[in-house]
Design brief:
about 30% strand, about 375 residues, about 25% helix, alpha/beta, TIM Barrel, nine-stranded mixed β-sheet, six-stranded parallel β-sheet, Urease, subunit C, domain 1, 10 helices
Length: about 375
C-alpha cells in the first residue's frame, strides 16, 4: 500500500479537497484523511503540492505516422518515457495517412506492449482511406473481438491525402460504430481527420449528425483548430450538438486561443477533448499540393500547451477536463479520467503547475520529472528502475 499525503486534490469527480490518497495495488482505495503506520504502508508527504488524474491522450501515432516525404521521412512514435514524463497514463493509438505500410497488426502489438508496461493503452481500427483497413476485415468484428480496439480512425475528410468519400459510405460506417457500441459497451467513436483542402470541411459531418439517428458522440472531428475558418465552423458544429477534438501544436491556434473562442461562443467545454497527435507528421504543402516541408509532433507539446494556457490566465483545473474526464466520458473509458476509489491509480503530482511525480497503475514511474521506467524488457518483466 502507498499513501500520498497532504495534497490539494483536483479529482475531476467530486470537486477539490485537501487530503490523502490511498493506493491499494493498481487502484485508488480511498481519498480522505488516512493514517496508516509506516511499517504497513509507504507514506509520502506531498504537503503543498497538487494531485490530479493522469492525462488521457486519445490521439497518438504510437508507431509513428505520416511519411509524406518518402521512406526517410517516416517518423518514429513516442516511447513510453515520452508519454509518462508528460503525464500521459492513458493513450489511444491511431494510424493515419500511411495505412499502407504501417499495419494495424503492428499497432495492436505496440498497444499491447504499452499495456504490458502499465499504460492504459487502447487503439482505433482503420486509417485515412475508405474503404479503411481492418484486422478482421470488418470494423464491427475488430471492436467486438479485440479488447484493445475501442473505435475507428482516423478517417480523413476534406484532405487530399484521403480518398474520395461519399455520404453513403460514411453513413454506413457511423451505423457500424453504433452497432459496435451496442454489442460491446465500448466507446466506438469515429475519429474524423479534418483537412482544409476543400471549402466547408465539416459539411459532411453536419449531414451525418443531422441526417442519421446515431448519437453525435460517435462522430468526433479532430484538428478542429487547424485554421480560423475550420475552428469557427467546428464551434458552430459543437453548438449544434456535436463534439470536437483540439490538436496541440498549431502555432496560430494554440490551446489558450481555442479556449477563449469556446468561452466567447458559449459552447459547453465538456464536449471537447485535447490531444497531441504525437508521432504524426506535420507536412507543409504549397498551393499546388507540392510538399515543401515536414516536421514531427512530439508528446511534450501537451505540457507546453498547458503551460501557455496557464500563462494566459487559465487555471489548471479549467484545462484538465479536456485531457481527463472529457475523453474518458466520450470514449467510455470507465477506469480513468478521475481520482475516485476503484479507478486505476494513475495520479500526477504537480508542483507550481509542473509535473513532479507520476504514478501509473499504482507504480511511481516519474520522480522529480525523470522517468523510472525502462522501454525494453531485460532479464525479467520488471520495467521499473
Amino acid at each position: 500500500m502507498k499513501v500520498l499525503k497532504n495534497l490539494e486534490i483536483i479529482s475531476m469527480d467530486s470537486g477539490n479537497s485537501k487530503g490523502d490518497i490511498l493506493i491499494e495495488g493498481k487502484e485508488i482505495g480511498l481519498i480522505g484523511r488516512i493514517n496508516i503506520p509506516d511499517d504497513i504502508a509507504e507514506n509520502t508527504d506531498y504537503e503543498g503540492l497538487t494531485a490530479t488524474p493522469g492525462l488521457v491522450d486519445s490521439h497518438v501515432h504510437v508507431l509513428g505516422g505520416g511519411g509524406e516525404g518518402g521512406p526517410g521521412s517516416r517518423p518514429i512514435g513516442p516511447t513510453i518515457s515520452d508519454l509518462i514524463v508528460n503525464g500521459v497514463t492513458s493513450v489511444v493509438g491511431v494510424l493515419g495517412f500511411d495505412g499502407y505500410t504501417r499495419s494495424l497488426l503492428d499497432l495492436h502489438m505496440r498497444t499491447r506492449a504499452l499495456k504490458e508496461m502499465g499504460m492504459n493503452a487502447y487503439m482505433m481500427t482503420g486509417a485515412y482511406p475508405i474503404p479503411t483497413p481492418t484486422i478482421t476485415e470488418d470494423i464491427i468484428h475488430d471492436i467486438l473481438l479485440i479488447d484493445e480496439v475501442i473505435g475507428i480512425g482516423e478517417i480523413a475528410i476534406s484532405d487530399r491525402r484521403g480518398m474520395p468519400n461519399s455520404l453513403e459510405k460514411l453513413t454506413d460506417m457511423v451505423h457500424k460504430a453504433y452497432h459496435s457500441y451496442l454489442l460491446t459497451g465500448k466507446g466506438s467513436v469515429i475519429n474524423f481527420h479534418l483537412g482544409d483542402h476543400i471549402k466547408d470541411p465539416l459539411s459532411i459531418l453536419y449531414k451525418l449528425k443531422d441526417g442519421t439517428p446515431i448519437p453525435s458522440r460517435h462522430i468526433l472531428p479532430t484538428h478542429i483548430n487547424r485554421s480560423e475558418e475550420v475552428l469557427v465552423d467546428a464551434l458552430r458544429y459543437v453548438q449544434s450538438g456535436g463534439y470536437g477534438d483540439i490538436t496541440c501544436g498549431f502555432e496560430d491556434m494554440p490551446l489558450y486561443y481555442v479556449m477563449e473562442k469556446i468561452r466567447d461562443y458559449g459552447v459547453d467545454m465538456s464536449r471537447f477533448t485535447l490531444t497531441t497527435d504525437a508521432g504524426g507528421s506535420e507536412p507543409i504543402f504549397d498551393e499546388n499540393g507540392v510538399l515543401t516541408g515536414l516536421d514531427v509532433t512530439r508528446e511534450d507539446i501537451l505540457t507546453r500547451e498547458i503551460k501557455m494556457a496557464i500563462d494566459h490566465g487559465f487555471e489548471l483545473k479549467d484545462i484538465l477536463p479536456l485531457v481527463t474526464s472529457n475523453p474518458a466520458s466520450i470514449h467510455l473509458l470507465k477506469n480513468c479520467g478521475t481520482l475516485s476509489p476503484g479507478k486505476r491509480a494513475d495520479i500526477i503530482i504537480w508542483e507550481d503547475n509542473k509535473i513532479k511525480d507520476v504514478y501509473m497503475n499504482g507504480n511511481l514511474v516519474v520522480k522529480n520529472g525523470k522517468p523510472l521506467i525502462r522501454e525494453r524488457l531485460r532479464e525479467t518483466k520488471n520495467y521499473f528502475e
